[in-house]
Amino acid sequence: MNFKDLMPTYKEKTPLLFKYRFTVFTPVFNCEKSIKKVHDSLLNQTYKDFEWLIINDASTDKSHDVITQIIETSPLNIHYVNNKENKHKMSCFIQSIALAQGEFLLPFDGDDECYPNTLEVFNNEYKEIPNELKPKVAAITVNCEDQYGNPIGNLFPEDPFYCNTFEAAITNKISGEKWGFTKTEVLRNINIHPYMLTFGFIPESIIWNTVARMGFLTKCVNKTLRIYHVGVEDSIMNTPMTSKSAFGIVFNGLAINNWFLGKYFYKAPIYFLKTAYITLRSSKYLDYPLKAYIKSIDSFLIKILFIIIWPFRKFMR
């Protein structure tokens, strides 16, 4: 096993013509009680140039029946995919990239809500980006609040704040739930190894870090547009964490250190050492030998760290 062989790469493809401005993508798993709220949020949008892409990830409740009923009467442009086998959220996201007919892809979970002017604000914020900067900007991100009106996370240091999201996360200490769209064309240029998703749960941050790695900027705006429901049972976001998630944690940790350590280590050494620690701790749930990690790691420092700590992994918490 060489983890590097499975890591995403980036190569520009022939540009496509898009049918809509936005694709609003909703991954669904057991959302029979909440999916109507998502529909109502989209139905009330002041900006109408969008499609709603729903991927039902083999729900075990009545989500399919509820979605079918919505489609029968809704005036929205709805593209519905009903997966017969559970693929998990990351796989559904990759699936949505190939299916999206909108210029901008906006993930919107099956248990959340947004304000009626959300798409209008997103569209206006993009139009206000200086023309010379637009090719470099891949995404726009805003803030969220919970269903009780409480902010989730801190504000961006400037408004607007143009940044490399990885660098901003480790140097500006931006935390909390954020939300936004990414250019579909940029996402389609990311090459995903077909076997990457077969080894366990993979965090979506592997995609956002690929975008940041390629030098794209994100326009961050201190506006709150999404209502993120916390404490919701059976949502696709609340899949129980098990040892099956270990591969994704290890894979993501190796990618972070390979891609960013050389450039950012002196800005945030504790962050990279902590990432290596978490990677080592999670590796005890996998059956790969030490040599598989050593040949997958670029940094000599991290290789030495793995060799020293490897015999003590089972004691790490």
Automatic annotation (TrEMBL):
Protein name (Swiss-Prot/TrEMBL): Glycosyl transferase domain protein
UniProt-listed InterPro entries: Glyco_trans_2-like, Glycosyltransf_2, Nucleotide-diphossugar_trans
GO MF terms held by the record: transferase activity
UniProt keyword annotation of Transferase present: yes
Species annotation: Winogradskyella psychrotolerans RS-3
Keyword vocabulary terms for this entry: Transferase
PANTHER family cross-referenced by the UniProt entry: GLYCOSYLTRANSFERASE, GLYCOSYLTRANSFERASE TAGX-RELATED
Highest taxon of the lineage: Bacteria
Residues covered by the Glycosyltransferase 2-like domain: 23-128
